[in-house]
Amino acid sequence: MSMIKLGVPSKGRLMEKTFEWFGARGITLKRSGSEREYAGAVEGAEGVSLVLLSAGEIPRELASGRIHLGVTGSDLVQEKLADWESQVASLAPMGFGHADLIIAVPDCWADVDCLEDLDAAAHQFRAAHGFRLRIATKYHRLVREFLTQQGVADWQLVDSQGATEGTIANLTAEAIADITSSGETLRANHLKILSDALIHQSQATLFAARAADWSGQKTRLAALEQQLGLVAPAL
Amino acid sequence: MADKAQSRAMAAQLLQAFLSAGAQEVTPDILQPAEALLDLYGEDIRARAYVTADPLRGEMMLRPDFTLPVVQEHMANGADPARYAYAGEVFRRQDHRGPARSNEYFQAGFEVFDRADPEAADAEVFALFASLLANVNLSATIGDMGLLRAAVDGLDTLPARKAALARHIWRPRRFQHLLARYSGQIAVPQARVDLLNGVQSDAPWIGLRQPEEMAARIAALQADAAAPPLPVTSVTALNALAALRCPASDAPAQLRALNVAPLDPAITRLERRLAALEGRGIDLSCLQFDASHGRSTMEYYDGFVFTFTASDPALPPVATGGRYDALTRHLGQGHEIPAVGGVIRAGLLADLEAQI
What we know:
Chain A has about 240 residues and is α/β, with parallel strands linked by helices. Chain A is built from eight helices and 13 strands. Chain A is elongated and about 65 Å long. Chain B has two domains: about 5-150 and about 245-355, BirA Bifunctional Protein, domain 2 (2-Layer Sandwich), CATH 3.30.930.10; about 160-235, no CATH class. Chain B has 15 helices and twelve strands. At the A-B interface, α5, α6 and β9 of A face α3, α8, α9 and α10 of B.
């Protein structure tokens, strides 16, 4: 008989915290075999198998329905999946992996504190330099939707998959939109956070895949939900 | 639903009608350079258009609409006056699921570049569309972005405030925020108060934006802080204008009742347009006027705007159009010509005709 496949981040703090979260609810997740082997085992829940995956791949695996359940950051799901609520259901925020998606500008810009200032500075920048103010980010969908909804104009996104805080000093962007938890890296790079541009508050979240084959799994899912203390939305 | 052949046939039929109305056919490429589209629409176009890469020509987009290439072609080597027609597929990325959200569909369009009598050209386009859509039961709404622009331009306040408001006419949320700021209805943020009191940053200067640019903006903020707030009566009048909806036949009287003197030339143009529409047999009492029509969805239209919609609210508009004089100025490198036009969604029209 087929199993409910649970996708969990394959390494680091996110994996450990996920194991702890399930452990506190009577379900033991563990890696089987050696440290380097990405296979896992589940004790304390019937018919559930563990799949260890890169956190960044979990949204895609959920969207395709290759896994039934998955743990990953809500930022990754909302960024990577178009119309995310039609593809996955959020079952439970898990209370760890907190990070804020924010917009930051050079700390030396004394005249820019909020989106109203960013909008005015972007207009002025475009007139002076002949192109739109560049915002470096890897969160294209979330940032674009946020700035459009807020009615900010004269900006463009430039892709930055890493070391985003350095793009301003390197003259490849004027502002950044990135995940931060303590703000330490931003300060070290002489950047400050806009006061009213909190785009998304992310945390590790348990998601269910709408496209997964749930036939024959409803009883198991109900039992699992009860064990985890969840009320799941209809899939 | 109309299949591709039926949609194509309807688009061809509309194209013929436009050609009979005196247009010449233009056939823009499906692959368009991304740069001009990005420059015109901003980053938002990436959410709506398919982007692809050409190894030699760089980033390209699958044609999201015809207006931009038609204007470019006209500004490069068009006759004056000129009338153009086109028919073909447009491609729109869809980030949300929904029954009516096609990502590839046929459009047929008609564009008039004519400086002789703009209001007559507005009426010519609208009446042509109305006649082609007469078989199906649609409701038509018209608006005029020129009214809001004139009202902003006529405010008794700093030119910089008027420019900022005019820039955001198409983004109502930011427009309202600026109105509230300029009229003192929201508190000045502490960071702005500190800045105006001379508080500076001791952080090292980084990035391409220059200290002189910041100094210029601080000077502008100081001038703004020293200027008297926008009178609340001006804000009320602007909001009343933006909220005005009535039968088109009543629109001039209702607009005059707002008692905003700077609107007078724009109201006179509206009256000329309405007279021209009536002269072409349009019943103004069945035509809806909406002063905010097109504000959040039809950027680059800066005058007359119109939409024909079916009764089912889930359906996209069957036809849309309007005047875009500023776009020709933007793309014309020093040249400009008054321009008005519109498009019909051929497949949707075929569907509606099939239902009769």
